[in-house]
Write a structure and sequence with these properties.
This protein is mainly beta and 187 residues long. The protein has helices at 95-99, 174-177, and strands at 2-3, 11-15, 38-39, 48-55, 78-84, 104-110, 119-123, 134-147, 153-166. The protein has one domain (2-177).
Length: 187
């Protein structure tokens, strides 16, 4: 099994959700881990993941929501992990799917009392997974924390994805079909 190593997005977007409570400000700040943040508006307490989902090559959401149900309690930057090296998020993907510029992840935050955020979408990771590879797992890591007491303000410093995959087995050569390991030409 191989992996892409942790890879940062090339494109960050605030995707407006009807009746959301707040949008994400300065979305490009999630491209690097540099203590410069994507911020949400003042909200209620506590903060939770409402949605953590893959965005597939066709722009649709993946079949699994990896929200943790765990309150955001960290006031310092911490990477939170979703999925893993053997978790394909309920999808059957190939390298072609992963390499697509639309492939990525979306985060939505629940701020309690029916208040939730727009989608913070990360895409265009520039992966170069072999086209016929089998995708074994996808690890999404979101570096995040909150500021303030009440209301709490969600902050995202960085989003990254690591894709684990198995390359397709090479086709045997014609010579190997005859039990020959090599062919020598004699003159």
């Amino acid at each position: 099994m191989a992996d892409t190593s942790a890879t940062s997005p090339g494109t960050m977007t605030n995707v407006v959700v009807a009746e959301s409570f707040f949008l994400w400000n300065n979305v490009n700040n999630a491209k690097l881990s540099d203590n410069v943040y994507v911020t949400g508006a003042n909200g209620f307490s506590p903060l939770y993941d409402k949605l953590v989902s893959l965005i597939l090559a066709d722009g649709s959401f993946g079949s699994e929501n990896k929200k943790t149900g765990i309150e955001w309690v960290s006031t310092t930057d911490t990477y939170f992990s979703y999925g893993g090296s053997s978790d394909a998020w309920g999808e059957t993907l190939t390298g072609v799917d992963i390499n697509d510029s639309d492939f990525g992840v979306v985060l939505q935050v629940d701020q309690g009392g029916g208040a939730y955020s727009d989608y913070l979408q990360a895409s265009n990771f520039g992966f170069s997974v072999p086209a016929t590879a089998t995708i074994d797992g996808i690890l999404v890591e979101i570096e995040r924390h909150y500021t303030g007491l009440r209301p709490k303000i969600p902050n995202v410093d960085h989003i990254r994805i690591t894709v684990s995959y198995t390359e397709a087995a090479a086709s045997p050569s014609v010579f190997n079909n005859f039990g020959l390991s090599s062919l020598r030409l004699q003159m």
